[in-house]
């Protein structure tokens, strides 16, 4: 298809040039038409091949990052379905804000790996059923920095590393690890913070059942300019409830797969 489109584009370009400048007649016109058509066809085929190669590269990048995310899921019972959901929520918000495709891709990858640093957190802390001590919280709060150190040298993960490092920052400067304030927090991390909190409120936790989407919307709106970026929250509030429900329904399949993974891990 790219070749035939390129042929006709090339032919049309040459035809337009001839009509404007009146530089060819008869056989010469037909010859130039064919030559420019063939050049257009070659360009179209090269462009198609380039795009196919880029798509393959992006797919291989995504597969590699999913493998890393699955390593976290194997360690933390709650991470797999959570990671997949917040990826979808983040992209929905980013798309509503009009992010370009490249930044949406970085947002998706950063969201997928946001908890990669939990690999470095001891199981005794990560899976502790009760409240953490102050010392344990200090260790837990190191996971964004640890995650960043793990992914900072991945060449294709550029702005995505901002999500890994800064997803627990707050607009009022009371977050961690760097206590950034306002727009000091990178945009992708601000978007993710909204998605992450929404998923936390609408998911089952050991200490409470999942809350409604409407309750989550109200709770997030209450913390604009203190915990969350106003622009990101406004975009989130514009999202269709059906789109959010669709993410939750599809994630139930992933949650089932996580349970099976954990069963196999305990058996082995």
From TrEMBL:
Protein name, UniProt field: HD-GYP domain-containing protein
CDD domains to which the protein is assigned, alphabetical: HDc
Which PANTHER family does the entry link to? CYCLIC DI-GMP PHOSPHODIESTERASE TM_0186-RELATED
- NCBIfam families linked: HDIG (TIGR00277)
Q: Which organism is it from?
A: Tumebacillus flagellatus
- Annotated ranges, domain HD-GYP: 57-252
Q: Which InterPro entries match?
A: Cyclic_di-GMP/3'3'-cGAMP_PDE, HD/PDEase_dom, HD_GYP_dom, HDIG_dom
Q: Which residues cross the membrane?
A: 28-47
Cite the entry's keywords alphabetically.
Membrane, Transmembrane, Transmembrane helix
């Amino acid at each position: 298809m790219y070749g035939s489109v390129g042929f006709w584009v090339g032919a049309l370009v040459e035809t337009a040039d001839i009509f404007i400048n009146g530089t060819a007649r008869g056989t010469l016109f037909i010859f130039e038409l064919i030559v420019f058509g063939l050049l257009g066809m070659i360009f179209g085929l090269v462009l198609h091949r380039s795009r196919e190669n880029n798509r393959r590269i992006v797919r291989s990048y995504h597969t590699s990052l999913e493998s890393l995310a699955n390593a976290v899921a194997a360690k933390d019972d709650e991470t797999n379905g959570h990671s997949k959901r917040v990826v979808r929520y983040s992209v929905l918000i980013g798309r509503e804000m009009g992010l370009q495709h490249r930044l949406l891709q970085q947002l998706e990858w950063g969201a997928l790996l946001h908890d990669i640093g939990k690999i470095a957190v001891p199981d005794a802390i990560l899976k502790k059923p009760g409240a953490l001590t102050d010392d344990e919280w200090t260790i837990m709060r190191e996971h964004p920095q640890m995650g960043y150190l793990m992914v900072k040298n991945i060449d294709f993960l550029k702005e995505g590393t901002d999500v890994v490092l800064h997803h627990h920052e707050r607009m009022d400067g009371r977050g961690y690890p760097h206590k950034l304030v306002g727009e000091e927090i990178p945009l992708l991390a601000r978007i993710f913070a909204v998605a992450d909190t929404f998923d936390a409120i609408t998911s089952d936790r050991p200490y409470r059942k999942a809350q409604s989407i409407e309750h989550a919307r109200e709770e997030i709106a209450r913390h604009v300019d203190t915990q969350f970026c106003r622009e990101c929250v406004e975009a989130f509030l514009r999202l269709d409830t059906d789109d959010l429900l669709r993410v939750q329904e599809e994630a139930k399949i992933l949650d089932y797969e996580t349970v099976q993974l954990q069963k196999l891990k305990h058996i082995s």
